[in-house]
């Protein structure tokens, strides 16, 4: 089975409600390739390693969470960006990227899926008055110690989190996948026991300790593996095309 790039894009834009979400990069088709897609590769980031793996798999399209053309970056196609785009164009591979739409989506969003993976029952948005809040708030069925919660994260994400431990039982949790250390302010405002995100800054330690909030930095890559995989499966099921998720390891 195959699907036209145009049909696939229309279905994705609709399912992810991409047009209604303002973002730091263009969502959808970022680099055009062949008009028909039979084999899809998904990955977290459109790195050279992912492109090379997709070429080896003879993929017609790559779908990622982190694509190109970020706001504020040098828009010129030179250096690393040139090598990546040249590889795509030489092999006629489409590059599709969805950033915030793939963080926010209630079914295939990174945040919804991270919550599900960790057994967190969603109780609301992380940003209290934002219906398009990227992060979420939820609770565990049974409270855990911070050590138990760290073990759960390690077991589910195959990555040891960096923990700023306030040594109190964890029942309510705020989370936001990726590099959302700035969102700790929302977690503090919500009064939860713990905050999970992908990255951490020097000042996050003090904010966490001084606000009695345990902080789990679980990896930007590790927390954002799940949305694009689920979306790839959704596409494969809907259009009957081949899908393979390729996890190019990243310790950050
Ligand atoms: Zn990210």
Automatic annotation (TrEMBL):
Name of a matching Pfam family: DUF34_NIF3
Superkingdom field: Bacteria
Keywords: Metal-binding
InterPro entries (UniProt xref): DUF34/NIF3 (IPR002678), DUF34/NIF3_sf (IPR036069)
Family: Belongs to the GTP cyclohydrolase I type 2/NIF3 family.
Protein known as: Nif3-like dinuclear metal center hexameric protein
């Amino acid at each position: 089975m195959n699907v036209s790039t145009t049909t696939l894009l229309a279905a994705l834009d609709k399912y992810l409600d991409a047009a209604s979400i303002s973002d730091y990069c263009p969502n959808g088709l970022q680099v055009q390739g062949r008009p028909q897609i039979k084999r899809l590769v998904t990955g977290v980031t459109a790195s050279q390693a992912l492109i090379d793996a997709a070429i080896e798999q003879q993929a017609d399209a790559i779908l990622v969470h982190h694509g190109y053309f970020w706001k504020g970056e040098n828009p010129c196609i030179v250096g690393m960006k040139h090598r990546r785009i040249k590889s795509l164009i030489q092999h006629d591979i489409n590059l599709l990227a969805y950033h915030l739409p793939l963080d926010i989506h209630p079914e295939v969003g990174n945040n919804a899926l991270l919550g599900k993976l960790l057994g967190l029952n969603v109780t609301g948005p992380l940003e209290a008055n934002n219906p398009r809040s990227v992060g979420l708030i939820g609770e565990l069925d049974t409270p855990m110690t911070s050590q138990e919660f760290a073990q759960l994260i390690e077991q589910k994400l195959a990555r040891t989190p960096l923990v700023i431990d306030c040594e109190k039982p964890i029942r309510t949790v705020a989370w936001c996948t990726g590099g959302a250390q700035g969102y700790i302010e929302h977690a503090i405002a919500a009064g939860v026991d713990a905050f999970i995100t992908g990255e951490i800054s020097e000042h996050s330690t003090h904010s966490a300790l001084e606000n009695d909030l345990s902080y789990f930095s679980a990896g930007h890559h590790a927390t954002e593996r799940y949305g694009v995989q689920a979306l790839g499966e959704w596409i494969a099921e809907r259009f009957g095309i081949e899908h393979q998720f390729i996890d190019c390891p990243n310790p950050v």
